[in-house]
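Supplementary Methods, section 5.1.

A reviewer requested that the exact input to the structure prediction be made available. We therefore reproduce it here, unchanged from the version used in the analyses.
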Amino acid sequence: MSELLYLATSANAERSRSSLLCQRFIERFIGNRPSWSSLTRDLVSNPLPHLGPQQWDALRLDQYQLNNEQREYRALSDQLIREFDKASVVVIALPLYNAGIPSQLKAYFDLLARAGISFEFTADGPRGLLRDKDVYLVSTRGGILAPEDDHQIPAVEQLLNLVGITRVHRIIAEGLDLSPESADSGLAKAWQQLAALAC
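The structure derived from this sequence is encoded token-by-token as follows.
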């Protein structure tokens, strides 16, 4: 059975515009594919450990060298990699926080991107080892960014490319805090894109 994996990353709970867009998209996407299932991983309600010395060693030392906490962290990484690799489609809510991505999402990628497991080093640079798939990045922004000032989507695309994902779709709702009219327009344009992709 095909599965859609949804990564919820907004700290804004039910007021989150990225979450609202993603949930509407998933409802439409799954509605058009009755045989599919969906899995939500809420990285805010159930945060992942951030990277520190213990976690660093957990992903790099031999198994016999790890303490119990490190074994649990490695097992969590294994689970997330299997979950991501199994999914046929991934949807990522991507609000812009202080010019970057939510720290919860960075913690996720620190567990997902593992040398020798989800990517490998080669003479020509890193090579992703996970199954390629469509990934939908649903970005929300209070203002409007020039392309050269975007440190949000390119950062996530680079992390996805690292593990082997090349089919990345950008959906951007911007100008959401400029005025009510700008917010309505930004959300409407983003939903128009998403609705077409959900067919």
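Residues 2-198 form one domain. These observations are discussed further in the main text.
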